[in-house]
Specification:
The protein is an alpha/beta fold. Helix content is 42%, strand content 12%. The chain has a six-stranded parallel sheet, sandwiched between helices. Strands 5-6 form a two-stranded antiparallel ribbon.
Protein backbone atom coordinates (compact mmCIF):
# COMPACT_ATOMS: atom_id res chain seq x y z
CA UNK A 1 0.00 0.00 0.00
CA UNK A 2 1.86 3.05 -1.23
CA UNK A 3 -0.48 5.81 -0.05
CA UNK A 4 1.56 6.40 3.12
CA UNK A 5 4.68 8.52 2.71
CA UNK A 6 6.99 7.59 5.58
CA UNK A 7 10.15 9.35 4.44
CA UNK A 8 11.67 11.90 6.80
CA UNK A 9 12.84 14.08 3.91
CA UNK A 10 12.22 17.70 5.04
CA UNK A 11 11.03 18.67 1.56
CA UNK A 12 8.42 15.90 1.59
CA UNK A 13 7.21 16.96 5.04
CA UNK A 14 6.93 20.55 3.85
CA UNK A 15 5.01 19.57 0.73
CA UNK A 16 2.49 17.65 2.81
CA UNK A 17 1.97 20.62 5.13
CA UNK A 18 1.78 22.97 2.15
CA UNK A 19 -0.97 20.85 0.57
CA UNK A 20 -2.99 20.95 3.79
CA UNK A 21 -2.64 24.73 4.08
CA UNK A 22 -3.56 25.26 0.43
CA UNK A 23 -6.58 22.96 0.80
CA UNK A 24 -7.97 24.76 3.84
CA UNK A 25 -7.43 28.20 2.35
CA UNK A 26 -9.14 27.11 -0.85
CA UNK A 27 -12.19 25.83 1.06
CA UNK A 28 -12.38 29.16 2.88
CA UNK A 29 -12.24 30.99 -0.45
CA UNK A 30 -14.97 28.78 -1.91
CA UNK A 31 -17.20 29.53 1.07
CA UNK A 32 -16.54 33.27 0.78
CA UNK A 33 -17.52 33.11 -2.90
CA UNK A 34 -20.90 31.66 -1.92
CA UNK A 35 -22.82 28.38 -2.31
CA UNK A 36 -20.28 26.25 -0.47
CA UNK A 37 -20.78 24.43 2.85
CA UNK A 38 -19.41 25.58 6.19
CA UNK A 39 -16.18 23.84 7.22
CA UNK A 40 -14.03 23.72 10.37
CA UNK A 41 -10.43 24.91 10.00
CA UNK A 42 -7.22 23.45 11.43
CA UNK A 43 -4.97 26.09 9.86
CA UNK A 44 -1.80 26.35 11.91
CA UNK A 45 -1.92 22.72 13.05
CA UNK A 46 -0.34 21.17 9.93
CA UNK A 47 2.90 20.05 11.61
CA UNK A 48 1.02 18.14 14.28
CA UNK A 49 -0.97 16.18 11.71
CA UNK A 50 1.89 15.44 9.32
CA UNK A 51 4.38 14.53 12.05
CA UNK A 52 2.09 11.99 13.69
CA UNK A 53 0.65 10.43 10.53
CA UNK A 54 4.12 9.93 9.05
CA UNK A 55 4.99 7.75 12.04
CA UNK A 56 2.16 5.31 11.25
CA UNK A 57 2.11 2.38 8.84
CA UNK A 58 -0.48 0.67 6.67
CA UNK A 59 -1.76 -1.62 9.44
CA UNK A 60 -2.58 1.28 11.73
CA UNK A 61 -6.02 2.84 12.00
CA UNK A 62 -6.96 6.49 12.47
CA UNK A 63 -9.96 8.05 14.20
CA UNK A 64 -10.22 11.82 14.11
CA UNK A 65 -12.41 14.81 14.87
CA UNK A 66 -14.16 17.66 13.05
CA UNK A 67 -10.81 19.18 12.03
CA UNK A 68 -9.97 16.09 10.01
CA UNK A 69 -8.75 17.41 6.65
CA UNK A 70 -5.13 17.67 7.81
CA UNK A 71 -5.09 14.07 9.03
CA UNK A 72 -6.75 12.78 5.88
CA UNK A 73 -4.44 14.66 3.53
CA UNK A 74 -1.36 13.67 5.55
CA UNK A 75 -2.51 10.07 5.17
CA UNK A 76 -2.61 10.46 1.40
CA UNK A 77 -6.23 11.39 0.70
CA UNK A 78 -7.07 12.84 -2.72
CA UNK A 79 -8.03 16.52 -2.22
CA UNK A 80 -10.45 16.29 -5.15
CA UNK A 81 -12.37 13.47 -3.50
CA UNK A 82 -12.34 15.35 -0.19
CA UNK A 83 -13.81 18.48 -1.77
CA UNK A 84 -16.34 16.36 -3.64
CA UNK A 85 -17.40 14.85 -0.32
CA UNK A 86 -17.82 18.29 1.26
CA UNK A 87 -19.94 19.31 -1.74
CA UNK A 88 -22.10 16.18 -1.47
CA UNK A 89 -20.93 14.64 -4.75
CA UNK A 90 -20.87 10.95 -5.63
CA UNK A 91 -17.10 10.90 -6.13
CA UNK A 92 -16.46 11.80 -2.50
CA UNK A 93 -15.03 9.23 -0.11
CA UNK A 94 -18.48 8.50 1.31
CA UNK A 95 -20.49 9.19 -1.82
CA UNK A 96 -21.27 12.71 -0.67
CA UNK A 97 -23.13 11.62 2.45
CA UNK A 98 -20.67 12.62 5.15
CA UNK A 99 -19.94 16.24 4.33
CA UNK A 100 -16.84 17.56 6.06
CA UNK A 101 -17.65 16.34 9.57
CA UNK A 102 -18.03 12.57 9.18
CA UNK A 103 -15.57 11.48 6.50
CA UNK A 104 -14.21 7.95 6.62
CA UNK A 105 -11.83 6.40 4.11
CA UNK A 106 -11.48 2.64 4.50
CA UNK A 107 -8.70 2.35 1.91
CA UNK A 108 -6.62 4.81 3.92
CA UNK A 109 -7.29 3.19 7.27
CA UNK A 110 -9.29 6.21 8.45
CA UNK A 111 -12.12 4.61 10.38
CA UNK A 112 -14.13 7.74 11.04
CA UNK A 113 -14.37 11.45 11.63
CA UNK A 114 -16.53 12.34 14.62
CA UNK A 115 -18.16 15.72 15.01
CA UNK A 116 -19.19 14.81 18.56
CA UNK A 117 -16.54 16.34 20.81
CA UNK A 118 -14.58 13.41 22.21
CA UNK A 119 -16.72 10.87 20.36
CA UNK A 120 -13.69 9.38 18.66
CA UNK A 121 -12.06 8.69 22.03
CA UNK A 122 -14.46 5.96 23.09
CA UNK A 123 -14.63 4.52 19.59
CA UNK A 124 -10.85 4.34 19.32
CA UNK A 125 -10.81 2.26 22.49
CA UNK A 126 -13.29 -0.10 20.85
CA UNK A 127 -11.30 -0.35 17.63
CA UNK A 128 -8.14 -1.12 19.59
CA UNK A 129 -9.97 -3.77 21.64
CA UNK A 130 -11.14 -5.34 18.39
CA UNK A 131 -7.58 -5.42 17.04
CA UNK A 132 -6.38 -6.98 20.27
CA UNK A 133 -9.08 -9.67 20.35
CA UNK A 134 -8.63 -10.52 16.66
CA UNK A 135 -4.83 -10.48 17.05
CA UNK A 136 -4.52 -8.01 14.18
CA UNK A 137 -1.34 -6.09 13.48
CA UNK A 138 -1.15 -2.35 13.92
CA UNK A 139 -2.13 0.30 16.43
CA UNK A 140 -4.93 2.87 16.64
CA UNK A 141 -4.20 6.60 16.46
CA UNK A 142 -6.88 8.86 17.91
CA UNK A 143 -6.78 12.62 17.31
CA UNK A 144 -8.68 14.97 19.63
CA UNK A 145 -8.43 18.51 20.93
CA UNK A 146 -7.94 20.09 24.32
CA UNK A 147 -11.68 20.65 24.49
CA UNK A 148 -12.33 16.91 24.25
CA UNK A 149 -9.77 16.34 27.00
CA UNK A 150 -12.11 18.26 29.31
CA UNK A 151 -14.91 15.78 28.63
CA UNK A 152 -15.59 12.78 30.86
CA UNK A 153 -15.21 10.47 27.88
CA UNK A 154 -11.49 11.30 27.76
CA UNK A 155 -10.94 9.89 31.25
CA UNK A 156 -13.16 6.87 30.68
CA UNK A 157 -11.36 5.96 27.47
CA UNK A 158 -7.86 6.31 28.90
CA UNK A 159 -8.82 4.32 31.98
CA UNK A 160 -10.15 1.38 29.93
CA UNK A 161 -7.24 1.49 27.49
CA UNK A 162 -4.84 1.28 30.43
CA UNK A 163 -6.74 -1.48 32.24
CA UNK A 164 -7.08 -3.57 29.08
CA UNK A 165 -3.58 -2.65 27.80
CA UNK A 166 -4.78 -1.50 24.38
CA UNK A 167 -2.47 -0.31 21.55
CA UNK A 168 -3.80 3.25 21.27
CA UNK A 169 -1.83 6.39 20.45
CA UNK A 170 -3.89 9.22 21.91
CA UNK A 171 -2.93 12.46 20.15
CA UNK A 172 -4.14 15.64 21.83
CA UNK A 173 -3.78 18.62 19.49
CA UNK A 174 -3.77 21.34 22.12
CA UNK A 175 -4.59 24.30 19.88
CA UNK A 176 -5.46 26.65 22.78
CA UNK A 177 -9.09 27.15 21.69
CA UNK A 178 -12.18 25.09 22.43
CA UNK A 179 -14.56 26.38 19.76
CA UNK A 180 -15.06 30.00 20.98
CA UNK A 181 -13.65 29.47 24.48
CA UNK A 182 -9.97 29.82 25.38
CA UNK A 183 -8.33 26.86 27.03
CA UNK A 184 -7.51 28.94 30.12
CA UNK A 185 -11.24 29.34 30.81
CA UNK A 186 -11.76 25.59 31.16
CA UNK A 187 -8.41 24.25 32.42
CA UNK A 188 -6.09 25.11 35.29
CA UNK A 189 -3.04 23.36 33.85
CA UNK A 190 -1.32 24.39 30.63
CA UNK A 191 -0.60 20.81 29.56
CA UNK A 192 -2.88 17.81 29.18
CA UNK A 193 -0.26 15.08 28.72
CA UNK A 194 0.48 14.64 32.45
CA UNK A 195 -3.16 13.71 33.05
CA UNK A 196 -2.38 10.35 31.40
CA UNK A 197 -0.03 9.52 34.26
CA UNK A 198 -3.03 9.12 36.56
CA UNK A 199 -3.93 6.06 34.50
CA UNK A 200 -0.39 4.66 34.37
CA UNK A 201 -0.10 5.71 30.72
CA UNK A 202 3.21 7.03 29.39
CA UNK A 203 3.06 10.47 27.83
CA UNK A 204 4.97 13.30 26.22
CA UNK A 205 4.29 16.91 25.27
CA UNK A 206 5.98 18.37 22.19
CA UNK A 207 6.19 21.59 20.19
CA UNK A 208 3.32 20.97 17.78
CA UNK A 209 4.51 23.59 15.29
CA UNK A 210 7.84 21.84 14.68
CA UNK A 211 7.14 18.96 12.30
CA UNK A 212 10.49 17.28 12.93
CA UNK A 213 9.96 17.37 16.70
CA UNK A 214 6.45 15.94 16.30
CA UNK A 215 7.67 13.16 14.00
CA UNK A 216 10.48 12.20 16.36
CA UNK A 217 8.13 12.12 19.36
CA UNK A 218 5.48 10.20 17.42
CA UNK A 219 7.97 7.60 16.22
CA UNK A 220 9.13 7.04 19.80
CA UNK A 221 5.52 6.75 21.00
CA UNK A 222 4.54 4.34 18.23
CA UNK A 223 7.61 2.18 18.84
CA UNK A 224 6.74 1.96 22.54
CA UNK A 225 3.12 0.99 21.80
CA UNK A 226 4.16 -1.70 19.32
CA UNK A 227 6.69 -3.09 21.81
CA UNK A 228 4.51 -3.07 24.91
CA UNK A 229 0.98 -3.21 23.51
CA UNK A 230 0.05 -0.43 25.94
CA UNK A 231 -1.45 3.03 25.24
CA UNK A 232 0.48 6.30 25.04
CA UNK A 233 -0.59 9.94 25.04
CA UNK A 234 1.22 12.49 22.86
CA UNK A 235 0.28 16.15 23.23
CA UNK A 236 1.17 18.51 20.39
CA UNK A 237 1.11 22.13 21.53
CA UNK A 238 -0.03 24.20 18.59
CA UNK A 239 -2.46 26.99 17.69
CA UNK A 240 -5.59 27.25 15.58
CA UNK A 241 -5.00 30.34 13.43
CA UNK A 242 -8.52 30.59 12.05
CA UNK A 243 -11.97 30.69 13.59
CA UNK A 244 -13.92 27.67 14.73
CA UNK A 245 -15.74 27.48 11.39
CA UNK A 246 -16.08 29.39 8.14
CA UNK A 247 -18.29 32.24 9.43
CA UNK A 248 -16.18 32.87 12.54
CA UNK A 249 -14.32 36.19 12.36
CA UNK A 250 -12.28 35.51 15.56
CA UNK A 251 -13.48 38.74 17.11
CA UNK A 252 -13.05 37.13 20.53
CA UNK A 253 -9.34 36.33 20.01
CA UNK A 254 -6.65 38.52 21.56
CA UNK A 255 -4.82 40.10 18.64
CA UNK A 256 -1.43 40.01 20.36
CA UNK A 257 -1.78 36.31 21.10
CA UNK A 258 -2.69 35.55 17.51
CA UNK A 259 0.31 37.56 16.28
CA UNK A 260 2.67 35.72 18.62
CA UNK A 261 1.50 32.32 17.46
CA UNK A 262 1.51 33.24 13.78
CA UNK A 263 5.19 34.08 14.20
CA UNK A 264 5.60 30.38 15.10
CA UNK A 265 3.69 29.23 12.02
CA UNK A 266 4.80 25.66 11.16
CA UNK A 267 5.13 26.37 7.44
CA UNK A 268 7.22 29.49 7.99
CA UNK A 269 9.49 27.58 10.33
CA UNK A 270 9.95 24.76 7.83
CA UNK A 271 10.58 27.26 5.03
CA UNK A 272 13.32 28.90 7.10
CA UNK A 273 14.89 25.47 7.64
CA UNK A 274 14.73 24.60 3.94
CA UNK A 275 16.34 27.91 2.99
CA UNK A 276 19.10 27.63 5.56
CA UNK A 277 19.87 23.92 5.66
CA UNK A 278 18.42 22.17 2.62
CA UNK A 279 19.81 24.32 -0.17
CA UNK A 280 16.45 25.58 -1.45
CA UNK A 281 15.95 29.11 -2.71
CA UNK A 282 13.05 31.51 -2.37
CA UNK A 283 12.20 30.74 -5.99
CA UNK A 284 12.09 27.02 -5.18
CA UNK A 285 9.61 27.65 -2.37
CA UNK A 286 7.50 29.87 -4.60
CA UNK A 287 7.41 27.10 -7.21
CA UNK A 288 6.27 24.59 -4.58
CA UNK A 289 3.49 26.92 -3.44
CA UNK A 290 2.37 27.39 -7.05
CA UNK A 291 2.42 23.62 -7.53
CA UNK A 292 0.16 23.15 -4.51
CA UNK A 293 -2.26 25.80 -5.78
CA UNK A 294 -2.36 24.18 -9.22
CA UNK A 295 -3.18 20.87 -7.58
CA UNK A 296 -6.08 22.52 -5.76
CA UNK A 297 -7.31 24.02 -9.05
CA UNK A 298 -7.54 20.48 -10.42
CA UNK A 299 -9.18 19.20 -7.23
CA UNK A 300 -11.88 21.88 -7.29
CA UNK A 301 -12.54 21.29 -10.98
CA UNK A 302 -12.91 17.55 -10.34
CA UNK A 303 -15.36 18.13 -7.50
CA UNK A 304 -17.40 20.71 -9.37
CA UNK A 305 -17.72 18.46 -12.42
CA UNK A 306 -18.72 15.43 -10.34
CA UNK A 307 -22.43 14.53 -10.23
CA UNK A 308 -24.73 14.68 -7.23
CA UNK A 309 -26.14 11.35 -6.04
CA UNK A 310 -29.31 10.05 -7.62
CA UNK A 311 -32.34 9.71 -5.34
CA UNK A 312 -32.01 5.93 -5.69
CA UNK A 313 -28.86 6.12 -3.54
CA UNK A 314 -30.76 7.67 -0.61
CA UNK A 315 -30.89 4.48 1.46
CA UNK A 316 -27.66 2.88 0.25
CA UNK A 317 -25.21 2.18 3.09
CA UNK A 318 -27.88 3.03 5.66
CA UNK A 319 -28.11 0.37 8.34
CA UNK A 320 -31.60 1.14 9.59
Amino acid sequence: MDFIRTERDPLSLYQSMLLIRAYEKRLAALFAAGNFPLTCSAQGQEAAAVGVVRALNADDRILTNHRSSAHLLARGADPGRLIAEVMGKTTGYCGGKSGTLHISAKALGVVLTSTIVGGELSLATGVALSKQMLKQAGIVACFFGDGAACEGIFHESLNLASVWELPVLYVCENNQWQAFVHRRETMIADRIAPWAGNYAIDYASVDGNDVNAVLTAAEAAVERIRRTGKPYLLETCTYRQKGHFSLDDQGYVDADELTRWKALDPLRRMEAYLLESAGLSADDLAALRAQAEAGLDDAVAFAQQSPYPDSSALTADVYA
